[in-house]
Amino acid sequence: ARVAPAMTILATVSAPLVFLLDISGRAMLWLLGQRGESEEKVTDEEIKMLVAEAEHHGTIESDERRMIAGVMRLGDRAVRAVMTPRTEVDWINLQS
After folding, report:
1. Fewest C-beta atoms under 10 Å: which of 36, 56, 59, 73?
2. Are residues 3 and 28 in the same domain?
3. Measured between alpha carbons, how far is 94 from 76 in angstroms, rounded to an integer?
4. Is there a single domain that holds both residue 52 and residue 25?
5. Are 77 and 48 in a shared domain?
6. In whole angstroms, what is the distance from residue 59 CA to residue 53 CA?
7. Could you read off the pLDDT of 25-62 as tens digits, one per residue?
8. Distance between CA 80 and CA 9 in Å, rounded?
9. Considering the domain boundaries, does residue 28 fall inside one?
10. What residues make up the domain containing 14?
11. Looking at residue 79, what is its pLDDT?
12. Nearest by Cα to 69 from 56, 51, 53
């Protein structure tokens, strides 16, 4: 609770510097020929291929590969499918 006012003041005071650094960074990228965002995106299939290759070479274990695959599948699920509503959670009163 005490941190929020200090962070707000810091953000306000540093905003002009952040703005100048952002503009100068964009200008440098523009001068170097970088126009806008890169079109190249990594697909799910590329990540799966890299993970399989890492497992094949022994960089990661099969358990780690399965965990990564599970995390990637999580992005396709709705939050309601993963979480339990607070009204359906059993509580233990620590005061009693």
Report:
1. 36
2. yes
3. 37
4. no
5. yes
6. 9
7. 999 988 998 876 666 688 889 999 999 999 999 999 99
8. 37
9. yes
10. 1-36
11. 85
12. 51
Q: How far apart are CA 30 and CA 22, in angstroms?
A: 12
Two structure tokens written together for 11: 């953000």
Q: Structural domain tally of the chain?
A: 2
State the Cα–Cα distance between residues 69 and 48, nearest whole angstrom. 8
Nearest-5° angle of CA 15, CA 21, CA 22? 85
Average pLDDT over residues 10-21: 95
- The Cα–Cα gap between 66 and 60 comes to 10
Residue whose tokens read 């780690």 = 64
pLDDT at residue 14 above 80? yes
Instruction: Name the E strands within 1-96.
Output: none
d(Cα 74, Cα 62) in Å, to the nearest integer? 18
Predicted pLDDT of residue 53: 95
Residue 39 token pair: 């079109």
Question: Quick one: angle between helices 62-74 and 44-56, nearest 10?
Answer: 170
What is the per-residue pLDDT for 67? 93
What value does the mean pLDDT take over residues 69-85?
86
